[in-house]
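Subject: Protein entry, chain in single-letter code together with its fold tokens

Category: Structural biology, sequence-to-fold work with a learned token vocabulary.

Notation: Tokens come from a learned vocabulary of local backbone shapes, not from coordinates.

Start of record: The labelled sequence and token lines come straight after this line.
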Amino acid sequence: MFRRTALSAALCLGLGVYVAPTHAANNDGTVVGRTTAGAVVTIKDPNTGFERTVTADDKGNFRIPFLPVGKYLIESTKDGNITAQASDVVVTLGNATTVNLGVKELEGVNVSATSIITAVDVTSTESAFNISREELRRLPVDQTVASVALLAPGVVKGNAGFGGISFGGSSIAENAVYVNGLNVTDFYNRNGFSEAPYNFYQEFQVKTGGYSVEFGRTTGGVINAVVRSGSNVFHWGTELTLEPGNWHSRADDHYTADGSRYLTSGEDRDSLFKANVYASGPIVKDKLFFFAMYEAQGDNPRNTDNYGTKLYSNSATPNFWGTKLNWNINDDNVLELMAFSDKKENTADVYRFDYDTKTRGNKIDEVYTDTGGKNWALTYTSYLTSNLSMKLMYGQNKREAFQRSLMDIDCNVVSATSAVPRPDPNTPVGCASNTSVAKRNDDRKQYRADFEWKLGDHLVRFGYDHEQDTSDYSRYYPGPGALYYNVYTANPGDSISNPAGGGVIPPGYYGYVRARRYEIAGTFQTTNNAQYIEDSWQITPKLMLNFGLRRDGFDNKAADGASYIKMDNMWAPRLGFSWDMKGDGSTKLYGNLGRYYLPVANVINIKQAGGLLDQRTYYAFGGWETRTDAAGNDYYFPILGPQLGGVDVSQGNGTVGDLRSEVDHDMDQVYQDEMILGFQQMLSSTWSWGVNATYRKLHNAIDDMEISATKQCGENGYIGWVMANPGKKVTVWGDTNCDGVADGWVTVDTSKEGWAMYDADGNYLGQRGWVKPKRTYTALEFQIDRAWDDKWSFNGSYVLSWNRGNAEGPVNSDTDFDDTGRTENFDNPWVNYGGNGYLPNDRRHQFKFRGTYAITPHWQVAANLAVQSGGPVTGFGVGNPYDATNYHSYYVCVQNCDSPVSEDRIYEKSPRGKYGRLPWTYNLGASIAYIRPFEGGGQLRVKLAVYNLLNQQRVVQVDQDLQTTISDQTNPTFRQGLGFQQPRFTQLTVSVDF
């Protein structure tokens, strides 16, 4: 019979009982260790009755995989006699717990002390940190999964308007998120994920590098979470979260140099009320358990548009439900069902707003937004033998995105830069409140099989992972003609960016208008599959080697179901080692090498193979005319002057062409190689420290390129827009005999050729190739940790890093371009020529500190501080000194810019980071909590947390367009702030648990 004995770290060492985390599966944990050879090792969860027995091998080694997260009792017996016991053995998510059970008799030992898990991980080669729900409840951490991930060293917020988080220099579109083994990552654009409420999760693991071969489809980081479960004891509780609007500090308004307000934030307000109730317990004691939660939210933010002429009053109804069922069929077979719904409906009432008087006018529109969906996963675990275990999982992840408004038929969207003057700044431009009519339903069906087989000193893990990702999509702009009007400033004679040519501002006009029509619809599917195998070889008691190999396959399909981007045999080797230097688990040296592949997002299926119409027509801007909407409200609409050049349909003419001409036949995959070398040491039973160095190198990019010439036919070999690897050989269906008809496969070495250069008179100058994409990340990371002992805890980290290259990844955050895999970086060779430097996610210095202190058993204070240096600021131009191309570039015109002869213009290089860096940011959170246990069980917890306590509102994003036309004029909004830190807000959480 198990004895409930809490062993301190010192006693553990004295009895030969050592506890440390190591590698395990992705939605549970493992216990491994050593005991007497041939001994029977039994582990039991006293809360559920779950019990598992294995026999140690002839060296005394044992392993018990696929254990639910929790606390266990463990004992070793030989010939019917107990040889060792341990209690409060903590199994954490994605790790193993090493328990070396000595042979000393434990009778008579009576110890009562806090159980502390040793912080050094002597058998793992990955970079990750775990944090439980209870730890998070002690800290001032906002109630989002992203906020948890940001606690990890090297993880920063994306600096663009589309948000997201960046791991180790990667872009925001390269991460993966799992809940109970189910992949819930957004596969349409890879920017986001399905998310349950904070209180639904039991534990998080954040993997920042070196993760094993069972994880793939990411070149960034992994967020791994497991939800709460029931036990033999019935529990219930409730939690209220309050964020009244008047507990939020007012955001600052922002003004141009001449005093004009361009960003109105001072009237923005946010209020939040959340109430959840949960219950858990046995359905059949020791066999069948449940956990269920329901959460109702009242989320009522309001905000103005940038000019302060419209007020949006939002009302969201995100009523969440989630459940977990666990069935211990017998000691060798377990079945688990996890399900939740994160569906959310938001209605935004749109009103006229007078900023000067702060009064709300007539209602002019309603905008409806639906997001989220239902998610579930069924997992079966079977312990086939003492040394062979199996886990099977099938699940579904659904996400909806549907936006529309009442005024979609009558109102076009109009947008104007702040430099464009208006007769009355209080009169809005355009009457549309909704920027697009878009509907998307994403449906992921996933199944996987994972096996573990212990063979002496070798642990062999292997498995199969399959996903079918389907997007049903439609989108168009609201208003007559389905057109979106953008108004820009310019001077007579300026050349504008119009790929169809002829973009010169005529005399008498001081701006131009781009009228864009954008339409697409269809159903698109991608199939991803992978097989993996891994061998962890314990060469000696101190040295472990890890060999892994993963094979990925990606198959992106067009609307007709035919494959058009299909890549197989992506072999991803992983190699690691861990050296327990002293043999006592207190000090280790570790390292790993690995390769990771990134799939092509579904947005590429839709835009490349879905009949996209992206029609752009340019006009001289003739000023504003006043119109009246259906509600009787006045608004400004641009007067269209002469058309400037032709109609540009280069990005999509509404038809699906011959995809053989639009996709490289021999395209290489996007992959990243990573190397980590680290050291970690226990300083005492509670203190540990560590240091590691990381190097990452991204190989290849898959992006759209306009191939306008070939080696065989020169300028007459125009092919068009092609998804390919910039700077490499591209093979597409094209014109082989220069008669203007595509008749065979053509290979273009895009490192040397593929782009036809012309002068201002249209004379062909020859060909130019593309630079190859480059991205490297080098970092040195320091950490120190003090474990919680019911009195206090502390964690601190510092990361010194360099993120260099000419390509951030599949999105561009410095130019707010979030169409994953279709950036402007490689549209033509000059866009990225000379673009090597520090990338947008480069944060040279990052400091993170967090800790909790118990003043008394009932009162706790805590703090969470993040300090980081700002990212680089670049000044982008639109032309170049090599041909007449008028598009995004790292060159600005400084002389003779209005000359119609491009050779007369004089350009100056404007490299990455030339204009310094964004300011350092400081974000301090603080909290105070009151905890009161109830007699007979249960607890009251009240926590007041303040986020951004110092109310820092520093700029985190600026306009980096130094020039918007080929002219000697600097964009008046260059370096103007576009994004700022969220103002201070206060959150009160009251929870009662029984």
Observations:
- The chain has a mean pLDDT of 89.
- Residues 602-609 form the longest helix (8 residues).
